[in-house]
Each structure stands twice: as structure tokens, then as C-alpha cells.
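INPUT
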Amino acid sequence: QLQLQESGPGLVKPSETLSLTCTVSGGSISPFYWSWLRQPPGGRLEWIGFIHYSGSTKYNPSLTSRLILSVDTSKNQLSLSLSSVTAADTAVYYCRLGTPGDGFDTWGQGTMVAVSP
Amino acid sequence: EIVLTQSPATLSLSPGERATLSCRASQAITTYLAWYRQKPGQPPRLLIYDASKRATGVPARFSGSGSGTDFTLTISSLEPEDFAVYYCQQRYNFFTFGPGTLVDVK
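OUTPUT
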């Protein structure tokens, strides 16, 4: 059974870069799309972007200038890098199989990231 | 950006009752709409995609309808695990989510 696990620092300072990893187990990253989403405390979900196992990406236009998604098929891992973070980037970050609403429903448990001095 | 609005913000019902949740899109999205249920501390669970298709393993008490700009999620008889927040989400143009409807116990 496919399982996803997000990992990364729980605290990032303003203006620094937030880096997260999603490790996929129980299956292969190929030939799928993989998405990142986030949810601020008490707030609605926001789609961050998706990446194909081949490396092609599509980003939320509001985050494009600060975001890099990558994939390492040898390690079965996805990565997210978000630069110049502010308090508005404080959220639970999720990785999931597929693109939102496509019928797939495999998610990581999420990892909380707080942006604070 | 396509904006989704949900109503009501809160729905107070008893177990066994029928729940009807609404989602409206700021422009037509054909049937590219999904519904999720989220409990505290958990990721969302996909219930319905493409407006009316039940996701794998979702009980038959959940049904979705609508097209264009107006959509409905119906829960025919509320179970204890259904008291949660429900989000709609469109995939017609990028991906956006609604603000959620809280279904709580009356």
C-alpha cells in the first residue's frame, strides 16, 4: 500500500528558505503526478504545485517566483523549496498522489511549518 | 482565479439526518468539482470527484450533483464520523478550494 511521509524543519525564520521532503514507500514514483498542498491554521487548503515523475512541473501562479519542486526517482522522494518565507507561509504542508480532484486519494499526514523569528 | 463559495458556513444536524451542502463557482467549471471531508489533525479525504463520482471506498450515503457553477453534496443519513469540515475544490483552471462547511452536532 502506497504511503507518503513529509519531513522537514518545523520552524523557519522569515526571509529564509523552507525545504521539505516527501518520501514515497510501498510503490514507485513513476509514472505518476505528485502534488503539494498546504493549509494554514484554521484556514482553507491551497494548492502549491504538482510535479510529474519525469520532472515537469506546474506551480500556483501566486508562488511561482519562490517555488521549486523536484523529484528523485532513485530515492523515491519529492522535494519542495520555498524561498523568502513570511508568516503567511505558516501552514501544514501535505504531499499527495496525483493532482487535486483527479480521483486519487493518497496523502501524507502533513507536516506543520511555522515561520517565526 | 476561480473563487469557490460554500454555504452554509455551519450546518448543525443530528445523527441520522440528511445534510445538503452547497458550493458555487465564480465561473462555469463544467463538472470539474470535488468534495472532501476533513477531520481535525487529518488530511482531507476525497469523497466525490468530477461532481458526481464517488471515490474508491466512499459509502453510498455520499452523493454529488451539479454542473456549471452550482454544486451540491448530499449525505443521506449522517453517521458519527461525518461531523467534520467539508471542502469543495475545482480543477477546471488550476486548483482552488472553498472555505469549507462545518457539519456539527445539534
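end of record. The mean pLDDT of chain A is 96.
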